[in-house]
Every structure is written in C-alpha cells, then in structure tokens.
Design a protein that fits this description.
The chain has 278 residues and is mainly α. The chain has one domain. It is 71% helix and 0% strand. It has 14 helices and no strands. α1 packs parallel to α8 and α3 packs parallel to α9. It is globular and about 65 Å long. It starts with 20 loop residues before the first helix and ends in a 6-residue tail after the last helix. 33% of the residues are buried. The mean pLDDT is 88.
C-alpha cells in the first residue's frame, strides 16, 4: 500500500488574527465554572452584595433607618470589604496561570500555534480579569441599580451620577494592577504555589513595613510603601471621599501605574525568552 509523506506542511487553516486570545478566555472560564470549590468561592464573594441590598431596602422603606442610607462612602466601603475575595481569586486563579505552562513546557506549545505572545498574555490576563470584575464591578453596578429600584426614584442617582464612572474606573484600575502583578510573579517561577506565596509575602511585608515606618515617623505620608495603600488612596479620590493617608494621591497613582508598567515589562521579557520562531 502507498506510504504518504507525513513531513512538514504549511498550516492550511484560517488564522484568527487578534482573536486567538478569545479561545483561551472561553476555555479558561468554562474550565473554572466546572470547579465546585471555585463556585463556592464565587458565591461567598457575593454575600456582601446581598447584605448591602437588604440595607438599601431597609433604608428605602423605613424612615427610622436613615442612618444606613447609601452614600458614595457606602460604595467605596464595598470595594474595601471585597479586597479579601479579590486577594483569594487572584491567588487561586492567577498564581499558576503562567507558572504551570512553564513547568509543563506548555508555553512553547502555545507559541508554536497561530498565537502571538501578546495574544497569549491577553488570554491569560482576560481570564483573571473577568472573574475579578465579576466580584467587584458587577455587584457594585447592580447595587446602584438596586438602590434606584428600592427607592422608586432617581434622586440618589442624580445626586451621585459620578458613581457609575467611579465604580467602573476604580474596578479597572484595581483589577488590572493586581492581575498584572500576579501574572508577572507567576511568569518568574515554574511553581504556582511559590508564585502565590511570593505575592502574599510582598503584600504583607509592604503592609508591615508601612506599619513600622508610620510608628517611627508618626505620619501616614509613608503609606506609599504598601501596595494596597496606594490603591486605596486612588480609590478615595475617585469616589470623592476624604483621603485616609497624607500621601499625595498623585504619587499613589504614579506608583500604581508604575507597578503595572514593571509587570508588563517582566511579562514581555519572560514570555519572549521562550517564544518559538516559526
């Protein structure tokens, strides 16, 4: 019987230029939704939404409960209390995102396909960002809608119309910063566990360092040394609530974007180091 040549052949399929990352996003989301522990974590992250919704209902229907009436500070506080779940989701999903690909040499396989390193990074980043936005931006916007429905008027929304762009802007800044930093650390190791430990250590070490410097100087101007403090300072400005630290908010904003830039540089270098030239 004839033996057909099975040597190298040029790729004959269609190339989804600029859209290949969508495949990674779809598979990543579907894969996580089949994980029961992950679903439990997602449900737990929405408990605060339920509590806030009940608070809004009580404030709208009982005049004696005016003390719990929503304000801009309420929505700012919502994000502060979601920080724990942002941390857990970031560690759970982001720590192994690139580290496992490097450990199993899957990164070379990815880049040998019709997939650029930018599309690979966007695909990994988008999966983490989708879930983080699901526990930050989505419930916060729904809370805004719930307030209008329970109040039966647009009085609060008209007086605080800036809340919609504020929620959106802060959610994006927070999600992009933590996602980029986590993926950058993941790209530095072949162990997702080590990357998660490193991310946790950096956060707690920076917080501890701020605590020591504050005790020594007696001032909160040194709050910029802690990653989370810079994000909090920027958030206070966006939501137009009193600043919690004496650090100039423009410095905190510069540090946030600086961290994003450094993370992007690390990711580009680490992925390019194993890129296969076809």
């Amino acid at each position: 019987m004839p033996i057909h040549d099975q040597g190298y052949r040029r790729y004959g399929g269609t190339r989804a230029r600029g859209r290949a990352w969508l495949v990674m996003l779809r598979n990543g989301v579907i894969g996580m939704m089949g994980n029961r522990r992950w679903i439990v974590l997602m449900i737990a992250s929405w408990i605060q939404f339920v509590v806030r919704a009940i608070q809004f209902y009580i404030a709208a229907n009982f005049s004696q409960a005016a003390i719990v009436a929503p304000s801009a500070a309420t929505f700012r506080d919502f994000f502060d209390r979601q920080d724990l779940f942002v941390f857990l989701v970031t560690i759970t999903l982001g720590a192994a995102a690139i580290a496992e690909d490097r450990r199993t040499n899957a990164l070379q396989i990815y880049l040998s396909k019709p997939l650029t390193r930018l599309e690979y990074l966007v695909g990994k980043l988008s999966v983490l960002m989708v879930f983080l936005l699901f526990i930050t931006w989505v419930p916060a916007i729904l809370l805004l809608i719930v307030q209008v429905l329970f109040a039966g008027n647009f009085t609060f929304l008209k007086a605080n119309f800036y809340l919609f762009p504020a929620i959106t802007l802060y959610s994006l800044i927070e999600v992009v910063m933590v996602s980029m930093c986590m993926l950058a650390l993941s790209s530095l190791s072949t162990s997702g566990r080590f990357a998660g430990i490193l991310y946790t250590a950096l956060i707690f070490f920076s917080d501890a360092l701020y605590g020591v410097l504050r005790a020594v100087t007696g001032s909160t101007r040194v709050s910029w040394v802690a990653f989370g403090n810079n994000l909090a300072q920027v958030g206070d400005v966006i939501f137009r609530v009193p600043l919690r630290y004496e650090t100039p908010w423009i410095l905190s904003l510069a540090i946030v974007f600086g961290l994003i830039g450094i993370a992007a540089w690390i990711l580009e270098r680490r992925v390019r180091a194993v890129e296969i030239v076809a």
